[in-house]
Amino acid sequence: MSENEDNTGAHRVPPGPVSDIFASAVTAFNSKGGGAGVNASSHNAPGNVSHVLPTTVDIDNHHPHATDSVSPRVEGFRRNELRKRVRKVLNASSLLKEMKAGRLRRKSNLRTPGAPPGVDVKRPNPTLEAIFKSDAAIRVVDYSASRYVYHDLSRFTLAEFLQSPRPAWVKVRWIDIRGLSYPAIQIVADHYRLHPLAVEDTFHFPQAIKADWYENHIYLSMLLCTVDDGAQDTESVSEDGTDDHYTRRTPLFQNRVEIKVFPGMPPRPNIVTEQVNAFLMRDGTLLSIFQSDGEQATAPLYDRLAEGGTTLRDSEDASFLLFSLMDIITDQFFPILDAYKHQLDLLEASALENPKAEATQELHLIAKELGILRRALMPTRSLVATLRENNKAYYVHSEPVNTAPFVSKLTRTYLADVKDHVGAVVDELDSFENDARHLIDLIFNTVSHSTNEAMRSLAIISLVFLPISFLAGVFGMNFEYFPELHWGMGVYGFWIIVGVMVCLMLMTFKYMGWFGK
């Protein structure tokens, strides 16, 4: 027996709007003469559907009477109609998902007004424990210039692994958590004494791109933007009814409108984002926490770490590993630029060949999305500048004595490359946005020019026929004495005068440059 059936075998409709819809459907069906013994609120439980009992209803009078007065064909038709209505209500899975997601979003608002700042992982937090209870992929990478080892862990084995002594050969340790799992983050936050404000920013997203400096670590918040390949559903509800949109990549552009300018026009790239949190410690440890899987950023970095003799391995520097992660995240914008450039090239060719009003709408949406992307990336410039300065403004007098800097000199030098990439992407986005605006102006100017040409043609025709209309009006006057009307060659003279006037006007228009050039 399935979970949607009771002891009698009848389907159970969840209470709430769905059961109300079901009751309305049954009531409407009974009012039309199709009542078949369905009770939307039976004595068993609210929202239960009792067994369908074969009952006969008089279609004309809407009164039950003897069973033998209705043909089997009519009874079968009624049962089929009722079965369709019941199936339509029971299969409203999308409505149920929306209801569950809506209830959870209302109950689990992470930014509650009046709540104390920060997240203390030493104290119970039922809200975060209930929302971020799913498992996450955890990989710990230990490496030096001559050795590289990684460990795939779970939240049950992570605590034991961190309590074990760190080998002496390990110069850099990278703890990569792909997915927001509060039990796993609670373990690492307690072990490395992460600041409560930084832990709070990890769960509060979308978060601003920034770098916060604390006594024993740096917290960085970044945005990973990628082109969605459709492999991951961005809106889903788990089987237990829990809304897991917090651990899913978020579409950057909500409620998009797709406009087909011409057949075969590819849609605009669907950009999805996920927050990337990074904690850089002084002891050569880097902790990265991704909102989702973060595979686009971590997979290339794993491959580079597996190769020996590279700057990443030979430097034995956790801050250089952080730079490498930032560089990969920034480079993810280049495929996005290529996708939008392809869109603009197609629209430009369409605008030059056959300008349409639909193209201006598509170009307006592209310009809007490019502006959103540009504004989303702009804070990365300040982030890179802060890291390159090693945040000198954080220390009131001077950096604490006998402490290693968070960001090494080598990393500060290489961060200039990230700064250049960010500047190049921002400039390209701004250039593409201007190109879209210019194409809109081009289409409007082309359409306006075509309208002016049509109006000029009509004006020429009107001017040509204006003297002809004048002559026709004169010869059509009802004068008693009109010698030209009684002249035998009058009609030929009329057409000769008309032809001469038309030729003179056309020659004048051509001399003025109205046509013929």
Describe what you observe in this structure.
This protein has helices at 17-31, 72-90, 93-107, 126-131, 158-163, 182-191, 196-203, 295-306, 311-315, 318-331, 333-353, 357-377, 379-388, 409-475, 490-512; strands at 137-143, 148-153, 172-178, 210-213, 217-227, 250-251, 271-281, 285-290. It is of the alpha+beta class. Strands 1, 2, 3, 4, 5, 6, 7 and 8 form an eight-stranded mixed sheet that branches. Helix 1 packs antiparallel against helix 2 and helix 11 runs parallel beside helix 14 (409-475). The longest helix is centred in the last third of the chain and has 67 residues, at 409-475.
Q: What structural class do you assign from the helix and strand content?
A: alpha+beta
CATH-derived architecture of the largest domain: 2-Layer Sandwich
Query: What is the helix fraction of residues, given as a range?
Result: 40-55%
Distance between the first and last residues' Cα: 84 Å
Q: What does the largest sheet look like? A: 8 strands, mixed
- Number of continuous helical runs: 15
Total number of β-strand segments?
Answer: 8
**Assembly form of the protein:** single chain
- The overall average pLDDT, rounded, is 76
Query: H/E series, N to C?
Result: HHHHEEHEHHEEEEEHHHHHHHH
User: What number of structural domains do the residues give?
Assistant: 3
CATH fold topology of the largest domain: Beta Polymerase, domain 2
Rg over CA atoms:
37 Å
CATH superfamily of the largest domain, called what?
CorA soluble domain-like
- Strand content of the residues, in percent? 5-15%
**Form type:** elongated
Classified by CATH, the class of the largest domain is Alpha Beta
